[in-house]
Amino acid sequence: MIKAVFFTVLTVAFFYIIWINNIFAPHEHYEMPAQYAKIAEDVSYAKEGKQLFEQNCQSCHSVRYDAVYISSVQANPKLKTLQEQYGKVLPKNVYEAVFYEDLMGLKESFGKVPPDLSTMYLVKGKEYLYNFILEPQKVLPGTSMPAVMAGRPEETAKIVAYLKSVAEPSPEEKNKRVLMGVGTIAYLIVMGILLWVWRARVLKRMGLH
Amino acid sequence: MEASRRDLMGLAVGGLGAVGVIGVLYPLLKTFAPSAASLAGATVEVDVASIPEGQVRVVSWKGKPVFVVHLPQGFQWNGKVKEERNVKLLQGQDAYAIVAVCTHLGCVPLWKPQGEADYKFPVFHCPCHGGFYSPWGDNIAGPPPRPLYVPPQKREGGKLIIGEAGFVKELT
Amino acid sequence: MLGRIGRWLDERAHLSELWQSQMIDYKVPKNLTFPYAFGVMALVAFAIQIISGIFLTMYYQPNVHLAFDSANYTIMKEAPFMWLIRHVHAAGANFFLAVVYLHIFTGIYYNAYKKPRELTWIVGWLIYFVLLTTALTGYLLPWGQLSYWGMVVTSEIPTSIDSAPIIGKLKLGELVSVLMKGGYEIGQITLNRFFGLHIWLLPLILLALVGIHLYLVRAAGISNPEGKEIDKKKEGVPFHPYMTLKEGAYLMGYLAVFFFFVFFYMHHFLPPDNYDPANPFKTPAHIAPEWYLLAYYTIFRSIPDKFLGFVAFNLTLVFLLILPFLDFSPMRSARNRPLFFIMFIVLVISAMALTILGTMPPTPTNAMLGLTFTAGLFAFFLSLPIISIIEWGWYKAKGGDKQ
């Protein structure tokens, strides 16, 4: 019995550390003021955020999963014909090949093609994005990203909310998933208990218990 | 008593098991449902002036070919159709869109402004099995069981917007 | 009506005879403990991987330009419910390996590798090895930063052979590395090759091995926690319903935990860094193998010499393979073997510590700890022959060999 408890605790603790919360591994942590964190969390600011994105970021960054391309591409009539052919979200190789010159132009000025931001929220998280957009040099010294949003924390948070809305499922979809998850788990637990009770009955009848 | 209770348990396990199987099959089968992009009601804008009068342009709407017909001023048509359906729906429009999929077996009909075979006036002719349609898509002759489908569409000045409810509200 | 169809089928296929002989007349010991259920959990995990994997291939595109978008746009956003399938497949891979590890440790604990089950153990080891390869090939497919750089590091590991004294001259490691990648860099050919391996070759091999493994379990009979072979006629209980319903109930518990992760905690199974498309010019800040390889990785990097490190971690795998021959004691099951029990705890703690050390930065202290636990791991394997000799002595003193 003691052995069983010992091995169970050891196993659970092990998987807790490697899967859920690794207390031994280093974590980077960025702070952001609570009121702006609230805005960045709230995808209802996404529409405003998108407008701000178009004004401040789109000259260099695309959000391909939202069919938002860099400004010079957006102004190119070719884009529309391509979208009719390939769909609103252009395949990456088509986009990069057709608008090669636009992208290389950016590379010349910045040293590299500014990354597409479709999944950036998932990679970096809101705290990093908020701090980085506000003060790029402080977070990542030497970066070629200009401090376009300097001194505009609220608007920065709204841009983060927009990036979140592109990267993550919508709130309704999230609620649906939570409901599905709870239902599935409840089902499995009930089924497990039922099987156990049934087994006890069957075994009693067979005289095996 | 004991037997019926056992049966009840068995039934409960079996029934719940069936629910589980359905629960697994549902998302798996559901992955075959149309994707988000194809569900999003795409709209197509067509500049009517860019189509010569009496001519037809084929555009793609929701992955289907659609005829955009631009009729000349005071267009007269003397044919006889089996069923006057689209012509009533599209009355008074000099430009309109009809789904270019033959209602017989899904071929794309051809526009014959000079007529074809016995029909000496503008018709749509389906080359697969010889179906004939009026310029409004009402079936004249041949195997097609019904007129061509008409997508929702709206007229805004010189533009025809396919996929938005206007003079045609929904796909009919 | 249904009954008639059933009878029609049965008269021809003799399914009920098969059921009777394989499920009911098949007798198992009554005292099997909870860890015996890890076997059936692994089987279910395998089935889940196959089904979810088949659905993923319908949308995934093995093309360096499109792979990332097909995984993160088409699958996660466009196609209905494919996010769920991907979550299931990603979490499922981790759960599969976790359950396989638990199954392996259970086998070690109860000495299930001993005569007549050596072959079952060896086939099981092959399953484990092929499974690791499958996991490794599948990891590249989403074409994210971790996928890409994980493979860069992995394909560099064989080159450690080249720093060996004499055989290093042959550049065997480089050859292996180039053969893995299909060239000198990781590109389209690598991706296509790994895709083919991951969805066809390796699963088919796994399927065959799992079949053989199950057959061998049946052929040799299931082991016993008490370490003695039972007289099945007298002591055995019918596999169905005694064991099926019990393991069925455990399985529901396992699936409940699994789906908790699928719906609510994918952070570890779909890590943030892998949402960054592969970039051959930028290494991510933290790059370490997946947890199921970390113990080997820590052994590899704790040993200062690259070639020796390579030898050491491969030796661990070899030890695991020849375990039935290292341990030739007449006694079975850790329940009856106090010395073995102590060494088993050393093994478990060392393996866990090595895994956790793999997630930590490679400081000198951690390297020292790594060496210590590597020693612990090796101590387990190397102590087995010694323990066996001692236990033969006890066995003879009790007059055991005369029976």
Describe the structure.
- Chain A is mainly alpha-helical and 209 residues long.
- Chain A folds into two domains: 137 residues, Cytochrome c-like domain (Cytochrome Bc1 Complex, Chain D, domain 2, Orthogonal Bundle), CATH 1.10.760; 39 residues.
- Helices cover 67% and strands 0% of the residues of chain A.
- In chain A, helix 2 runs parallel beside helix 10, helix 3 packs across helix 10 and helix 8 runs antiparallel to helix 10.
- Chain B has two domains: 32 residues; 122 residues, Rieske Iron-sulfur Protein, CATH 2.102.10.10.
- Chain B is 22% helix and 26% strand.
- In chain B, the strands form three sheets. A four-stranded antiparallel beta sheet of chain B has the order 5-6-7-8, with no helix packed on it. A three-stranded antiparallel beta sheet of chain B has the order 1-10-9, with no helix packed on it.
- In chain B, strand 6 and strand 7 form a beta hairpin.
- The model of chain B has no long low-confidence stretch (mean pLDDT 85).
- Chain C is mainly alpha-helical and 403 residues long.
- Chain C folds into two domains: 251 residues, Cytochrome Bc1 Complex, Chain C (Up-down Bundle); 116 residues, plastocyanin oxidoreductase (Helix Hairpins, Orthogonal Bundle), CATH 1.10.287.980.
- In chain C, 69% of the residues lie in helices and 1% in strands.
- In chain C, strands 1-2 form a two-stranded antiparallel ribbon.
- Chain C is globular and about 70 Å long.
- The termini of chain C are far apart.
- The relative contact order of chain C is 0.12.
- Chains in contact: A-B, A-C, B-C.
- Chains A and C meet through helix 1, helix 6, helix 8 and helix 11 of A and helix 4, helix 5, helix 11 and helix 15 of C.
CATH superfamily of the largest domain in chain C: Cytochrome Bc1 Complex, Chain C
Helix/strand-derived class of chain C? mainly alpha
Order of helices and strands of chain C: HHEHHHHHHHHEHHHHHH
Q: What's the CATH topology label of the largest domain in chain C?
A: Cytochrome Bc1 Complex, Chain C
Helix and strand pattern of chain A: HHHHHHHHHHH
Instruction: Categorize the overall geometry of chain C.
Output: globular
Describe the largest sheet of chain C. 2 strands, antiparallel
Query: Multimeric state of these chains?
Result: heterotrimer
Strands of the biggest beta sheet of chain C: in what spatial order? 1-2
Average pLDDT, all residues of chain A? 92
The chain-level structural class of chain A is mainly alpha
Strand content of chain A: under 5%
CATH architecture classification of the largest domain in chain C: Up-down Bundle
Alpha-carbon Rg of chain A, integer: 25 Å
The rounded Rg of chain C comes to 24 Å
CATH class descriptor of the largest domain in chain A: Mainly Alpha
Shape by Cα distribution of chain A: elongated
DSSP helical segment count of chain A = 11
Segments of chain C where pLDDT lies below 50 for 5+ residues?
Answer: none
Can you tell me the number of structural domains of chain C?
A: 2
Largest sheet of chain A: none
